[in-house]
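1st attempt posting a full record on here, be nice pls
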Amino acid sequence: MQASTMAATDSPKMEGFWSSWKCHAMELLYWRDLKQSGVVFGSILLLLFSLTQFSVVSVVAYLALAALSATISFRVYKSVLQAVQKTDEGHPFKTYLNVEMSLSHDQMQKYAENVQYYINTTLKELRRLFLVQDLVDSLKFAVLMWLLTYVGALFNGLTLLIMVVVSMFSMPVVYEKYQAQIDQYVDLIRTHVNSVVAKIQEKIPGAKRKAE
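the predicted structure (as tokens):
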């Protein structure tokens, strides 16, 4: 009874947290606050460019050392300042040390169920594609993999990740500004692709989807 009550209490809190997090992420991607988005964008790019020059272990170690240097220096500075001024303000990071960071059993179970759902869905979709349940979808997947072989030959994983990050912070703003024109071209491309797919389905035996 108590556990169910706690779960019911935690659920709205977590939903509110994720809703707030999504809104904050959208504000960053749409550059609502130029300074904040610039700091996040620059930090991510700096991290990724660092990974192109150094190993993951080195980058993590350097970041940890930089963070520790900052926090230790600030802690020593505040301790000396309190000793000189003869004040007792307590630990400078007391507010952050008191923040609750643990996940409840119900929250962990919810996340595990979500991960399980996505894994099962992905495995079913891959089985459907590789075992050619739908010929057209399998052909589309084959074309995509063929295109990715060229992409992989031109760029490594980190370069692609950098391009993804740059796109995430640039494409939403571009789409918001030129939404009408982009939607028009997307509709034209979608119509053309659907026309080509329909012609392929007519010419290849067994390519037509069965009516549900």
